[in-house]
Design brief:
Layout (H helix, E strand, L loop, with lengths): L8 E4 L5 H10 L4 E4 L3 H5 L7 E2 L3 H5 L4 E4 L4 H11 L8 E4 L4 H15 L2 E4 L2 E2 L2 H5 L3 E6 L5 H11 E8 L4 H29 L4 H8 L7 H12 L8 H18 L4 H18 L11
Parallel strand pairs: 1-2, 1-4, 2-3, 4-5, 5-6, 8-9
Antiparallel strand pairs: 7-8
Helix pairs in contact: 4-5, 8-9, 8-10, 8-11, 8-12, 11-12
């Protein structure tokens, strides 16, 4: 532990979620090292007092906690394999990426092989909640080191839901929640697109919903973005398509028929094919 009795933390992946996670951990007094495949993104954190490292192994060397915030399961596996020679047995691994049920089993097995204490802890929330330390952490993992894990979760989120002692439960819950978020996104996008197609001002849909039982902060935020044509990514179409595919695959694995989830994936794929992959998932409206 460092002089303040806080663990040294390595954050692997400093994109829309990883960068604010690193900043918020640093603000709460943790010594933070960061690595990203695009080194400029990690270097950008140097101004905040965060040490940018040239490789995953450099980042995790002597770290007591590793946080992975990467695109998908194969990316997490590849980066942790690269970090493995510098990892010490007993290091706590907080896996915050959305990776699906197959990949989380692979990562848990890797953690066991390397002697790491593994927490499956995907986060609910996009760029803005991450920046404000308002993420919801969906955690599963052993009781033994939860106090340490909770100190980090409290630094990056407003709430931690402990789902199970067995890794994988957090990832399964995340898929169910993402399915709901995608349904809301497409439902709004298609309703506004239908209004426009019927020669009705889409803003009238928002006006009628506002203040009623169908209203929500999410509805208002995405509606505002669509009406303004502002698709700066909080969560991109490309990432949404990846996660929607994980939902469909999980449903098939569980033997649950999800017709809307399959349609959701098709719509995200169509938006990506139309060149909107780097835009916010509200760009579902454009297709």
């Amino acid at each position: 532990m460092n002089s303040e009795n806080l663990p040294i933390v390595a954050v692997l992946g400093t994109g829309l979620i990883g960068a604010p996670i690193a900043r918020n951990l640093h603000k709460r007094g943790f010594a933070v090292r960061a690595w990203n495949r695009s080194q400029a993104k990690a270097q950008a954190l140097s101004a905040d007092g965060i040490e940018a490292c040239a490789s995953p192994a450099d980042a995790v060397r002597d770290a007591e906690v590793v946080v992975t915030a990467l695109k998908d399961g194969p990316a997490v596996d590849s980066v942790m394999q690269a970090a493995a020679p510098a990892l010490r047995p007993g290091t706590i691994w907080l896996q915050s990426s959305t990776v699906g049920i197959e990949a989380i089993a692979t990562l848990a097995a890797l953690a066991e092989l390397l002697g790491l204490v593994f927490y499956d802890a995907p986060v609910q929330g996009t760029r803005q909640p991450a920046e404000l330390a308002q993420l919801i952490i969906l955690a599963s993992g052993p009781l033994a080191h939860r106090d340490t894990a909770a100190r980090l979760f409290d630094a990056i989120g407003k709430r931690t839901v402990w789902v199970s002692e067995q890794p994988g439960a957090g990832s399964r819950l995340k898929l169910a929640l993402n399915n709901w978020a995608f349904a809301l996104t497409h439902g709004l996008a298609e309703s506004l697109a239908l209004a426009k197609g019927l020669d009705i001002d889409p803003a009238l849909v928002v006006d009628v919903v506002t203040g009623g039982p169908m209203d929500s902060a999410y509805f208002q935020a995405k509606a505002k973005a669509i009406l303004a044509g502002d698709y700066a990514p909080s969560f991109s179409i490309a990432n949404a398509a990846k996660d929607a595919r994980l939902v469909v695959d999980a449903a098939a694995h569980a033997g649950v028929q999800l017709d809307a989830a399959q349609a959701s994936l098709w719509r995200f794929d169509r938006a990506a094919a139309a060149g909107h992959g780097d835009k916010d998932m509200a760009a579902s409206y454009l297709v």
